[in-house]
């Protein structure tokens, strides 16, 4: 069974940066596309960024130019570098492994709060 553990969240001022990490275990990491999603209070969960096993990436329009997703296949870890953070980035950020229609796995989430 796949397990995902997010870390790196916290409180940061507008304009600041955070780096989120997601540690993958339980299966062969390189077989899975990985993604970051977020859910703000009162909002639906939304895609932030996604990366394939080959390194191709997609981003939500709201984070393009500010966030970068990457993966280290030797460490079974996916990262989300978040720069120029805005208050509207405040949310719980979730790591996702896999894609429909095949198996999908979620981490427990890590809180990111952007506030002065």
**What share of the residues does DSSP label as strand, in percent?**
over 45%
- Tally of contiguous helical segments: 0
**Whole-Å distance between the termini?**
40 Å
User: What is the makeup of the main sheet?
Assistant: 7 strands, mixed
What value does the average pLDDT take?
97
In N-to-C order, the SSE pattern is EEEEEEEEEEE
Multimerization status: single chain
Search tags:
single chain, 116 residues, mainly beta, 7-stranded mixed β-sheet, 4-stranded antiparallel β-sheet, 11 strands, 0% helix, 51% strand
Chain-wise SSE layout:
Blueprint: E1 3-7, E2 10-12, E3 18-25, E4 34-39, E5 46-51, E6 57-59, E7 67-72, E8 77-82, E9 91-98, E10 104-106, E11 110-114
Parallel strand pairs: 2-11
Antiparallel strand pairs: 1-3, 3-8, 4-5, 4-9, 5-6, 7-8, 9-10, 9-11
């Amino acid at each position: 069974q796949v397990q995902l553990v997010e870390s790196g969240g916290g409180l940061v001022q507008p304009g600041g940066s955070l780096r989120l990490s997601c540690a993958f275990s339980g299966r062969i990491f390189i077989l899975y596309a990985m993604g970051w999603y977020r859910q703000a209070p009162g909002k639906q969960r939304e895609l932030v960024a996604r990366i394939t096993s080959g390194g191709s990436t997609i981003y939500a329009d709201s984070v393009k130019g500010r966030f970068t997703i990457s993966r280290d296949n030797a460490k079974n870890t996916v990262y989300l570098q978040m720069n120029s953070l805005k208050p509207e980035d405040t949310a719980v950020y979730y790591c996702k492994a896999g894609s429909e229609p095949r198996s999908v796995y979620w981490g427990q989430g890590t809180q990111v709060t952007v506030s002065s």
